[in-house]
Design a protein that fits this description.
The complex is a heterodimer. The model of chain A has no long low-confidence stretch (mean pLDDT about 90). Helix content of chain A is about 0%, strand content about 50%. Chain A is built from no helices and 12 strands. Chain A is mainly β. In chain A, the strands form 3 sheets. In chain A, strands 2, 5, 6, 10, 11 and 12 form a 6-stranded mixed sheet that branches. Chain A has a 4-stranded antiparallel sheet with strand order 3-9-8-7, with no helix packed on it. In chain A, strands 1-4 form a two-stranded antiparallel sheet. Chain B has one domain (about 5-95, about 105-114): Sandwich (Immunoglobulin-like), CATH 2.60.40.10. Chain B is built from no helices and 11 strands. In chain B, the strands form 2 sheets. In chain B, strands 2, 4, 5, 6, 9, 10 and 11 form a 7-stranded mixed sheet that branches. In chain B, strands 1-3-8-7 form a 4-stranded antiparallel sheet, with no helix packed on it. In chain B, a hairpin with a 2-residue loop joins strand 7 (about 65-70) and strand 8. Classes of the chains: A mainly beta, B mainly beta.
């Protein structure tokens, strides 16, 4: 069975500092990996994805994520965090052959202080 | 701009009531999903549908049913609402074979059962 782990419930950083949100996964075959962000009282917004190719993928709002197959990780990063990045972040994984089996992690709340 | 629209942002219902949550998408997507979101548990799949009148159980279907009579509309039904169904409900859609582009989510319905 596939699964996603986000080991940190909360991440707190100062504005301007680097931001990292951790994600590890378990899935059969090569994974399709996603990051979503949720602002208060809103639905999830797609940030970025890894399907194949370069291990470093770039997404919306200056975010990027690095796929590491040996460590089964897909950590989300931003070089310089903004207060407006404060939100709930979800990592998700699915196997390539199944459109319907997107599994989400529990989420990480990011707080960026001014 | 493509949209997934959930008819209600907030609902308060009484225990034992039959509750309908409505979702409409304007992207001509074949796949539609219902998730519930609870703190610390992330998103859990309740049901999904890959075509009109077709439905499949997700990970937590107990206490729920769904209806998809038209391609653009996917309804979640709580036959007899209970307090443990108090949650945020998220609808999503995707096109067949394009799940690698991620899902598009609605803004969510926060349901309180009293």
């Amino acid at each position: 069975a596939q699964s996603v782990a986000q080991p940190e419930d909360q991440v707190n950083v100062a504005e301007g500092n680097p931001l990292t949100v951790k994600c590890t996964y378990s899935v059969s075959g090569n994974p399709y990996l996603f990051w979503y962000v949720q602002y208060p009282n809103r639905g999830l917004q797609f940030l970025l994805k890894y399907i194949t190719g370069d291990n470093l993928v770039k997404g919306s709002y200056g975010f990027e994520a690095e796929f590491n197959k040996s460590q089964t990780s897909f950590h989300l990063k931003k070089p310089s965090a903004l207060v407006s990045d404060s939100a709930l972040y979800f990592c998700a994984v699915r196997p390539p052959a199944n459109d319907y089996k997107l599994s989400f992690g529990a989420g990480t709340t990011v707080t960026v202080r001014a | 701009d493509v949209k997934v629209t959930q008819s209600s942002r907030y609902l308060v219902k009484r225990t034992g009531e039959k509750v309908f949550l409505e979702c409409v998408q304007d992207m001509d997507h074949e796949n539609m999903f219902w998730y519930r979101q609870d703190p610390g548990l992330g998103l859990r799949l309740i049901y999904f549908s890959y075509d009109v009148k077709m439905k499949e159980k997700g990970d937590i279907p107990e206490g729920y049913s769904v209806s998809r009579e038209k391609k653009e509309r996917f309804s979640l039904i709580l036959e007899s609402a209970s307090t443990n169904q108090t949650s945020m409900y998220l609808c999503a859609s995707s096109a067949i074979g394009q799940g690698n582009y991620g899902y598009t989510f609605g803004s969510g319905t926060r349901l309180t059962v009293v």
